[in-house]
């Protein structure tokens, strides 16, 4: 079967076989569903065949989910990865995000409807990616892609600032800085921004609503969050609703931060070079009504971006 | 403390004698009412500096001799006075003054002490009984302060023990809550799936009811009957009976299993905390081990392999909730001693008089310096705010209160082993239990 016509293939990995049976029954009518209770066997399959969406448990003997997802990403970077866990474990969440680039962090017990929606959204992105890959290469040539990209820094941490300044000086990136959220919005409305580096607090305000609205309006913008907080619930919301790219704990380790920056720059350049590529990002709306209203308000304020860069779905 | 000037309260302004006053005159003065309270009278020089002290005792000595009064009565007091009396400056701290007075104190007490100002000029007398009274008052005050401090300490200790208990309780509840998430996940999903899967069955039932109604009605026309038949057939085809039956069976079986697991976890929580049980009970220590393992599973799952070598044990009279707390503490410590994966070996066995339980891990172990302090209250190797440092000190106390012992051996990089020994009969042979040999511990670890 040609790659484009193949049904979307899902793989669930969990050491509890009852979870696997239940999920397989739920999704078998719409997708091709594979299940594995051993992460090593799951990796073996990933070496053999394309898996569009991988959903993994975190705590399993032999290998944890974050590690499996990181290794799956190395094998199939185009795949969409989801963590499904019953434990709130901030280290696992950070690893799954930074090394596994997860699309969602889901918790057990899950709501079947929400799980349906999440898988449907991931499947749709997967199919669009597949179609884009099959299409002949677009007109965008490597020659007119500017080497430098645009970075927006929303963090006054001297160490973070020093690393970013150094990177911009060496690689010729363009740096914008804001000390307040409205200043950041003004910049985002005026300039094209590829990478946002943000603490979770800027001046007097929390930046999470801004990051969440940005994810809806501009999925190409990659967000690196730098924060001293280790709150699993907040991180979970940032992954699912702000589609953040990396999460770096403060005080930042220079090595980790530079690795995150480097990955973001590489990804941004890749997207700039292929405007037709489908960005596998689709943010969930915040659950809390007040927060949803705040995010919608910000989406309105960032509205002009929509016109400029074309609305992603 | 109001030490400065404390001596002022002891000051009695007594008129001093001059050195040339006659002994007869001294005797007369002693008889004055205002001097009744004093054992002695001060003698000062021309510039009011004390130069001696004459006591009733000394006068008595003189006058009791034969012709004493006649021989000595007209002599100046300077000839018979104590030329080196105890002199204290009024500014002297109370404690120092008291120490000086009590070291010079002789029995019987025959003299008072002289108080002078900063320049050394005579101000008055102080008496020993007054000083003793003042010392007693101070001691009482200090005792009360100490009593308060002791009560404060007791209270904060109780609070700390309570907060450690709450911390481990919180950890336990969080652990169980997480454990529940897996069965809740598939049970919830299965119920949702069963609802979805059963929908065509209800549709089929309805179609069959329609068909049956038509069949039973002689007035039904051919076309309507054919229609109903067609509908019933479609509904039947929508239900793949074979697959459906198998799905139902599997979903229900898994759901049953999940519900059993949920009740087992909740039951484990109840067993562990023993909220509905007597504080002291005859229990099988192996049951405590199993209850603690169930609770600790959250910390162990996925990375720590637990091996159990539990031998049959006689019932042990103990406070199971406390023993469970000790076991959970040991299991969590063992899990935390491992950076990645590891093994915890739990062994239990019994002899005539005691029950033994060992918890051994192959984690990072402890240096002798750390090992020496692990039972100290507040000692912790964790970062500030992550541990109370009370876990093992409370465990130690619990085991001791049960008349048992808790011992530890550890090697850095190799692992740690805790050995708990609890006597089967309390008090009577507690001494014997305490003397149980522990020598092979260190070696066993080395061979581990």
From TrEMBL, chain A:
The keyword Cell membrane does not apply. One of its GO terms (biological process) is phosphorelay signal transduction system. PROSITE patterns: RESPONSE_REGULATORY. Pfam families: Response_reg. Residues 9-123, 150-265 form the Response regulatory domain. SMART domains: REC. Signal peptide: none annotated. Keywords: Phosphoprotein. This is Response regulator. It comes from Pseudothauera rhizosphaerae.
UniProtKB/TrEMBL annotation, chain B:
It catalyses: ATP + protein L-histidine = ADP + protein N-phospho-L-histidine. One of its GO terms (molecular function) is phosphorelay sensor kinase activity. PROSITE patterns: CBS (PS51371), HIS_KIN (PS50109). Pfam families: CBS, HATPase_c. It is an enzyme of class 2 (transferase). InterPro entries: CBS_dom, CBS_dom_sf, HATPase_C_sf, HATPase_dom, His_kinase_dom, HisK_dim/P_dom, HisK_dim/P_sf, Sig_transdc_His_kin-like_C. CDD domains: HisKA. It comes from the Bacteria. Residues 10-71 form the CBS domain. Residues 175-426 form the Histidine kinase domain. Its EC number is 2.7.13.3. This is histidine kinase. The lineage of its organism: Bacteria, Pseudomonadati, Pseudomonadota, Betaproteobacteria, Rhodocyclales.
């Amino acid at each position: 079967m040609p790659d484009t016509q193949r049904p979307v293939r899902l793989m669930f990995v969990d050491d509890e076989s009852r979870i696997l049976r239940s999920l397989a029954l739920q999704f078998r009518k719409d997708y091709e569903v594979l299940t594995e209770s051993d992460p090593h066997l799951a990796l073996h399959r990933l070496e053999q065949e394309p898996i569009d969406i991988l959903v993994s448990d975190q705590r399993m003997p032999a290998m944890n989910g974050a590690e499996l997802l990181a290794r799956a990403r190395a094998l199939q970077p185009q795949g969409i990865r989801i963590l499904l866990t019953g434990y709130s474990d901030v280290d696992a969440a950070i690893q799954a995000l930074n090394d596994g680039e997860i699309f969602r962090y889901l918790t057990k017990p899950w709501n079947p409807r929400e799980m349906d929606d999440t898988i449907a959204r991931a499947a749709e992105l997967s199919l669009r990616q597949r179609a884009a890959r099959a299409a002949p290469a677009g007109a965008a040539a490597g020659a007119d892609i500017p080497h430098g990209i645009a970075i927006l820094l929303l963090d006054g941490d001297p160490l973070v600032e020093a690393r970013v300044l150094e990177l911009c000086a060496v690689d010729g990136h363009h740096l914008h800085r804001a000390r307040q959220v409205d200043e950041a919005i003004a910049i985002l409305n005026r300039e094209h921004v590829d990478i946002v580096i943000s603490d979770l607090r800027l001046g007097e305000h929390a930046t999470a609503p801004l990051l969440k609205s940005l994810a809806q309006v501009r999925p190409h913008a990659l967000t690196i969050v730098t924060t001293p907080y280790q709150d699993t619930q907040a991180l979970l919301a940032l992954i699912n609703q702000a589609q953040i790219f990396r999460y770096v704990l403060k005080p930042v380790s220079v090595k980790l931060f530079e690795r995150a920056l480097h990955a973001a720059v590489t990804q941004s350049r890749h997207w700039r070079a292929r405007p037709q590529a489908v960005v596998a990002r689709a943010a969930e709306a915040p659950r809390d009504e007040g927060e949803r209203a705040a995010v919608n308000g910000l989406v309105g304020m960032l509205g002009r971006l929509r016109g400029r860069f074309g609305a992603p779905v | 403390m109001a030490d400065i000037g404390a001596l002022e309260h002891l000051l009695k302004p007594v008129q001093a004698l001059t050195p040339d006053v006659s002994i007869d005159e001294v005797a007369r003065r002693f008889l004055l009412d205002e001097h009744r309270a004093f054992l002695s009278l001060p003698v000062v020089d021309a510039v009011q500096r004390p130069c001696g002290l004459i006591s009733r005792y000394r006068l008595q000595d003189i006058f009791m001799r034969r012709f004493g009064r006649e021989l000595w009565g007209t002599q100046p007091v300077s000839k018979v006075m104590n030329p080196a009396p105890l002199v204290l400056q009024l500014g002297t701290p109370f404690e120092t003054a008291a120490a000086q007075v009590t070291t010079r104190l002789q029995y019987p007490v025959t003299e008072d002490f002289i108080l002078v100002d900063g320049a050394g000029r005579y101000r008055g007398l102080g008496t020993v009984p007054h000083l003793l009274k003042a010392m007693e008052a101070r001691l009482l005050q200090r005792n009360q302060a100490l009593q308060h401090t002791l009560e404060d300490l007791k209270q904060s200790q109780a609070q700390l023990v309570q907060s450690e208990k709450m911390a481990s309780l919180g950890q336990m509840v969080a652990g169980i809550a997480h454990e529940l998430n897996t069965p809740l996940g598939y049970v919830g999903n299965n119920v949702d799936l069963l609802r979805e899967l059963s929908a065509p069955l209800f549709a089929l039932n309805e179609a069959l009811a329609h068909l049956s109604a038509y069949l039973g009605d002689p007035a039904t026309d051919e076309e309507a009957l054919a229609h109903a038949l067609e509908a019933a057939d479609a509904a039947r085809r929508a239900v793949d009976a074979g697959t459906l039956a198998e799905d139902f069976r599997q979903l229900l079986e898994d759901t049953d299993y999940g519900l059993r697991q949920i009740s087992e976890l909740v039951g484990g929580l109840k067993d562990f905390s023993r909220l509905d049980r007597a504080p002291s009970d005859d229990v099988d220590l192996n049951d405590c081990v199993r209850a603690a393992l169930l609770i600790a599973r959250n910390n162990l799952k996925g990375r720590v392999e637990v091996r159990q070598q539990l031998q049959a044990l006689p019932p042990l009279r103990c406070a199971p909730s406390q023993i469970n707390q000790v076991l959970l503490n040991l299991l969590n410590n063992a899990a935390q001693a491992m950076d990645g994966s590891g093994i915890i070996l739990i062994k239990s066995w019994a002899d005539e008089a005691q029950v033994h339980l060992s918890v051994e891990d192959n984690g990072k172990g402890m240096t002798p310096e750390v090992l020496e302090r692990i039972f100290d209250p507040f000692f912790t190797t964790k970062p500030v705010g992550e541990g109370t440092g009370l876990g093992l000190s409370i465990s130690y106390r619990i085991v001791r209160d049960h008349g048992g012992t808790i011992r530890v051996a550890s090697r850095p990089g190799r692992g740690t082993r805790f050995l708990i020994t609890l006597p089967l009969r309390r008090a009577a042979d507690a001494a014997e239990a305490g003397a149980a040999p522990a020598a092979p511990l260190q070696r066993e670890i080395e061979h581990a």
